[in-house]
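Example 3.2
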Amino acid sequence: MAPAQSKAKAPQSTPQNSLLREYAEQQFAEELEVLAKGDRTQRPPNWKLSPRTVMIYLMGGKLENGFTISPKYIGDRRLIEIAVATLATDRALLLMGVPGTAKSWVSEHLAAAISGDSTLLIQGTAGTSEEAIRYGWNYARLLADGPSMAALVASPLMRAMTNGKIARVEELTRIPMDVQDTLITILSEKTLPIPELGEQVQAIKGFNLIATANDRDKGVNDLSSALKRRFNTVVLPLPKTVEEEVDIVRRRVESLGRALELPVEPPALEEVRRVVTIFRELRNGVTEDGKTKIKSPSSTLSTAEAISVVNSGLALAAHFGDGSLGVEDLAAGLIGAVVKDPVQDKLVWKEYLETVIKERQGWKDLYHACREVG
């Protein structure tokens, strides 16, 4: 008897314009293509772009043909140069910093520019196991045929090794220490042993690893000294100036607004500046003019959270307002970002509201909006 024909349809690919979040290599495909065509500098093995061109992609600029590359990172150029140079060697890269300093963003765009693939990702959590880093097994095949390469399920890291690409590990310090140390042999010997088969996978040229970590959140596991030595660490700082942070927030909010198709006007620069100023003052414990010391809340108040506050305000303005971002749209998100501890943070916020926002010229509207919500 002839085997029955399956009537299942092949999975249809999702139209790119309907994706909620595109990968970096999808969102900036045109920029990457233009850069690759004009790249005449020597590239390391299996790199899509040369290190100099990767820098242009990350930091932005205008090409000789007039094409403009948007900046993906706004900050110290030298830090990104060190990161790119590290990935051109056999040392792995560890991006450190407090939450919201664009570690994951930089990691994704480095992988997209170098490998053309930012999807070889391991998300670190307290439940991340060795199998997620090394490999797993297809248990149906394992039981039927025993251990074999066909029964093995490669992890993103193993696929990066065999294809000569960049692998990413997000939140490395959230992974238990004994699981973290699984990386030591891979980073030292560029080899992944498979003792069940008596074999090993050797990395081909182009393979490297980018990990991100921060030491501010709860549930952090320190890296062992042996693992630290396998990384070159680059610490990404918070934006140095108000203008720099405002520019980051504005660009990301506009990008997210287009992706979410919000029917709203671009955020007013003045409203973005207010949110950024409040976050910076509460974060630093002093007003921007240095005249008034204030208490800091327990929340991190990162640039990423400022982006979230403005984006939330835009959604309110688009769907329940007149389409123009106002203080009423910002107030709820602002208080929600600052007041994480309902007791301690509420007192800090109330004191800041009464002593700084209320007294600041031109901020009365924001003061009244926050009072109304609070």
